[in-house]
Every structure is written in C-alpha cells, then in structure tokens.
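User: Predict the structure for this protein chain, please.
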Amino acid sequence: MNRRAEIKMTPEEIGDFLEEEKVAIVSSFGPRGWPHSMPLWYLVRDGHILAWTFRKSQKVKNLERDPRATVLVEAGYDQYGDLRGVMFECETVIHDDLDFVVEYALGMTSRYLPGDSEPPPEAVEAYRAQAPKRVVIEFIPIHTISWDHRKLGGGL
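Assistant: Here is the predicted structure, written as structure tokens:
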C-alpha cells in the first residue's frame, strides 16, 4: 500500500477535523497572477466551507475575476508525526443577500464564542449594520486531498 493511501482521512474524519480546527487559509489568484493567501474563520455547511469578509476585500476581487480557490486547514505543526490537514480545490460562489450574511454571522458567532453561546442582541444588531459591507464566500470542493500522519504510528 502506498503511503498517501495510508494517511488519507475518511470523509467522517475530515468532518470531525474541520469542526475541531478554527482557521482556514484561503488562496486565490491575485491581480498579478500570484497566489493571495489569507486566514479566515469558517463554517461547514453541507460539505461546503463558508467564510465572510468585506465586499471590497482583495480576495473578493480576486474571486470575482477567477472563482477558483484553494482552502487549507492544517494542524500538528510541532511534530511531523502529528501533522494533519485537508486541502480543497474549490469553485466559489459569493453571496451578498443580507439575510444570508446575517445568518452566517450568527452561526459563526456561535462557533467561535466560548461555550457555543448565543450572540447578545447588540451583536445581532451590529451584524445587521455590517451586512451591507460584507459577503459570504461559499467554497465548493471539486478535489480534496487529506493527510493524517498520526496513522503512520510515529514512523516516517
């Protein structure tokens, strides 16, 4: 059996890993053709990664020009044997519907606030005020590569 197959995560393992981790590195093609990589908080819905950002951000401009992106979520930086990650090659959809953006913000707050708490009413109002300036990017995986070096049992 080849080593790549040995360390590949199952779909369930990928789902658990994405729930556990908090930051995705998103790469798009910048205006000069070079990769433009930025960290984003994210939610997973129906196998797609969702993230929000400002409508006028460079990543949105890049994705409007070319909707392809790579999303990387990785963990285990200290030891080779602990490295885990998943990389998605994606097509993207940019959502600017205000209700969709606010709904995303509420879900993101629940995920990132300590104790999975509900956002306070003033946060909800702040999201409604910010929504016209923001979009939600939906990353639709076309190709997935994953790795979990812990499956090697400490060997290289």
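Residues 92 and 139 are 5 Å apart (CA to CA).
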